[in-house]
Write a structure and sequence with these properties.
Oligomer: single chain
Strand content: 5-15%
Strand order of the largest sheet: 1-2-8-5-3
């Protein structure tokens, strides 16, 4: 195969095309070298049995930190993404409760309210770009629901710094810095790495100031995710440290902001480029009462199927967490030796014709008629390294979609072909999904949250 540097640049510049080309040429399993200079062999897996075998390998036989080190400057060394063994289990147990069960119900009002506020100035004839609107909505949801910040000076400053940094991180040239450690040299504020470090320090100061204030206030009534994490205790009765809290918050932000926004942009494009899908979805939304609650909305079967099919065609992440083999493991009757990096590939697993007939077509009905295994459909990864925020992300997506479609009739502003383009760690539709507001509803549904 091609030189490792060329493979790395191809993966960074056009990952979906690179993966498709490799799969077409080599099949369900192929080996590349895409972790920069001196890259170890990286094996992509997309057959359900291979993915099942990979998820079944005990964590003690794999090294996750070496395979994910490129994320450390962004996430922080205490991030759950970089933890292994007991430390990973401890953090997962502390992080899981705020993203499940009754906690979710308390987030519905904020999600719909933020969506309504961001879109309140839309009027008939307005042209909007979903690629600009959706990140604004998802960032504010993270700041208010996850961080628990109220609009004010700190909120605004953090919003500006984060959106600016994340905008740069999504650019292929800037993100190359994280794949090549030799480029990570602080040569002053005007150097790329020096600029990144200074902005990260500013963001950290604001986050630590919020944590300090929260520790002093002892307000047990707050239900945002940061407050719940601060009050959580592990089996030894210990809390997360400030550093752990900071790194989890930044990880949740980076993994849940641009990613969910990108999928939402795809949802609105796909709904409005498939009239039969839009008609079915609107019919279902019209069955809601004038004051539906968040649970009723998020359990709508066709809305759920639309979100699931969008995540199949355009998953939030293209791959699961990479894992490096410590000694020797066996996957699908093949042995892999020490130093090999195993990568279950979500994108290719979702496009197997054997699992999904006509995989290129957008057909939400797939998810009404059939249940897929967690090795065939895995938009949030799987096994013991699956995404903690999966349920929250689905919940958020459905409420944002229902809120907007209950208030506005939209149509695509042009019929130009749309293709996937890389933006940071996610894949977004080209052109930004420009839309016209063709009608503003006089009587939008008044969502209530029980």
């Amino acid at each position: 195969m091609m030189h490792s540097l060329l493979q790395t640049f191809r993966l960074i510049a056009n990952p979906t095309q690179f993966l498709e080309d490799c799969a077409n040429q080599y099949g369900d399993q192929f080996t590349v070298r895409v972790l920069g200079i001196n890259s170890p062999p990286v094996v992509f897996l997309s057959h359900p049995q291979a993915i099942a075998d990979c998820f079944a390998v005990p964590a003690k036989e794999l090294d996750f930190k070496k395979a994910t080190h490129v994320f450390e400057p962004l996430f922080g060394s205490s991030s759950i993404v970089l933890q292994e063994g007991r430390s990973h289990n401890r953090q997962r147990q502390l992080l899981m409760p705020p993203f499940h069960g009754d906690c979710m119900k308390t987030y519905g009002q904020a999600i719909c309210q933020i969506t309504a506020e961001v879109t309140q100035n839309w009027t008939q004839g307005t042209t909007i770009s979903m690629q600009q609107v959706m990140p604004d909505i998802t960032l504010q949801i993270i700041l208010q629901v996850v961080f628990g910040l109220s609009p004010g000076a700190r909120y605004q400053k953090l919003k500006e710094l984060l959106s600016s940094l994340l905008e740069d991180v999504t650019k292929p040239l800037y993100s190359t810095l994280f794949f090549f450690p030799p480029l990570q040299k602080d040569l002053g504020a005007w150097s790329p790495w020096g600029n990144f470090q200074r902005r990260r320090e500013e963001i950290d100061k604001l986050i630590y100031a919020e944590i300090d204030e929260r520790r002093l206030s002892h307000d047990a009534s707050r239900t945002n995710i940061l407050s719940l994490l601060m009050s959580a205790r592990d089996e030894n009765g210990e809390q997360m440290t400030d550093k752990e809290l900071r790194d989890q918050l930044v990880s949740l932000l980076l993994l849940g902001y641009e990613t969910t926004a990108g999928v939402l942009a795809w949802v609105f494009y796909l709904i409005h480029s498939h009239s039969e899908v839009k008609d079915k979805l609107m019919q279902e939304l019209h069955t809601l009462s004038d004051t539906p609650n968040s649970e009723t909305i998020t359990q709508l079967p066709y809305l759920s199927a639309v979100c699931q099919e969008t995540l199949r065609v355009h998953p939030i992440a293209l791959i699961c967490t990479p894992r490096m083999v410590k000694d020797t493991v066996e996957i699908a009757s093949q042995k892999f030796t020490s130093g090999t990096v195993l990568v279950p590939c979500i994108y290719l697993a979702h496009r197997r014709a054997e699992t999904y007939p006509e995989p290129e077509k957008f057909k939400p009905e797939r998810f009404l008629n059939q249940k897929f295994s967690p090795y065939e459909y895995l938009p949030f990864g799987g096994g013991y390294r699956g995404c903690i925020g999966a349920a929250f992300s689905m919940y958020e997506m459905k409420l944002v979609i229902a809120t907007i479609l209950s208030q506005f009739q939209l149509e695509l502003a042009d019929n130009h072909p749309v293709y996937p383009v890389r933006r940071g760690i996610t894949i977004v539709p080209s052109g930004g999904v420009r839309m016209f507001v063709t009608k503003q509803m006089n009587q939008a549904k008044n969502f209530v949250y029980l």
